[in-house]
């Protein structure tokens, strides 16, 4: 059985007291669920997030990581630093990192390798821009993102990888892929992975959808066969919305 996951990517939101307040609200309202629930606060609040969530079934994950093990990289955060505060999972390849911080497929190969070498699990994000979809190029673009960043891996590496399909045109725009569009792409992604790494990897890999998921649309998206959960941005910043999305899985 593939793991179901609902993950909140808080992006550059919530200072320390807001982080504590949102986590305490989540604790207070947390339903019992078969899904793994994750939250990704900003780096500076990771340590405190673990403290607040101690004993609760919400995993704290990181939004990014530098590809080098250590060294003269002012302002950067290493895999080992994340591990040292308790992080076991890191988001890599988010479209905002690609668009605003110049992250390329080539750089992501290095980040993926460093994360796996440090026993970090990865939520690997990818997805097409609007112009790729309107020109009918979305499948080949997504295939190339997977091929360029992940096809060098071994079958065994896939135990530590979750995929997150996030069409760029649906992120923070209020525009959501229809459940049918999500299913069509997720099935394509699963087949792409199965063709390269075998059907066992294809069957087992969790594929999350991200892009304007909210309480009103989560259930119909999550109901699709190849959608194993969501990576939630804006709606993860309000406890009631995030809880409603967890309840939709
Ligand atoms: O980028 C996202 C999650 O990583 C999605 O963001 P929104 O849910 O705000 O569209």
TrEMBL record:
Substrate binds at residues 9-11, 172, 212, 233-234. InterPro entries: Aldolase_TIM, TIM_sf, TrioseP_Isoase_bac/euk, Triosephosphate_isomerase, Triosephosphate_isomerase_AS. It comes from the Bacteria. CDD domains: TIM. Pfam families: TIM. Its EC number is 5.3.1.1. Gene3D superfamilies: Aldolase class I. Involved in the gluconeogenesis. Catalyzes stereospecifically the conversion of dihydroxyacetone phosphate (DHAP) to D-glyceraldehyde-3-phosphate (G3P). HAMAP family: TIM_B. NCBIfam families: tim. Homodimer. This is Triosephosphate isomerase.
């Amino acid at each position: 059985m593939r793991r179901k996951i609902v993950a909140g990517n808080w992006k550059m939101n919530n200072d320390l007291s807001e982080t504590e307040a949102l986590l305490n609200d989540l604790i207070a309202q947390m339903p019992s669920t078969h899904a793994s629930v994750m939250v990704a606060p900003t780096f500076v609040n990771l340590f405190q997030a673990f403290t607040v969530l101690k004993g609760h079934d919400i995993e704290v994950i990181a939004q990014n990581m530098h590809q080098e093990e250590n060294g003269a990289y002012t302002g950067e955060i290493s895999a080992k630093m994340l591990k040292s505060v308790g992080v076991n999972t890191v988001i890599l390849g988010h479209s905002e990192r690609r668009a605003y911080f110049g992250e390329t497929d080539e750089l992501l190969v290095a980040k993926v390798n460093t994360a796996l070498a440090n026993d970090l699990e990865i939520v690997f994000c990818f997805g097409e821009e609007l112009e790729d979809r309107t020109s009918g190029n979305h499948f080949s673009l997504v295939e190339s993102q997977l091929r360029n960043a992940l096809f060098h891996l071994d079958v065994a590496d896939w135990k530590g990888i979750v995929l997150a399909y996030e069409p760029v045109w649906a992120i923070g725009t209020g525009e959501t892929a229809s459940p049918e569009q999500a299913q069509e792409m997720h099935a394509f992604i699963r087949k792409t992975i199965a063709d390269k790494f075998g059907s066992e990897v294809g069957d087992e890999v969790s594929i999350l959808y991200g892009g304007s998921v909210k309480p009103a649309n989560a259930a119909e998206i999550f109901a699709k066969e190849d959608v194993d959960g969501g990576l939630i941005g804006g709606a993860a910043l309000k406890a009631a919305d995030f809880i409603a999305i967890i309840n939709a899985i």
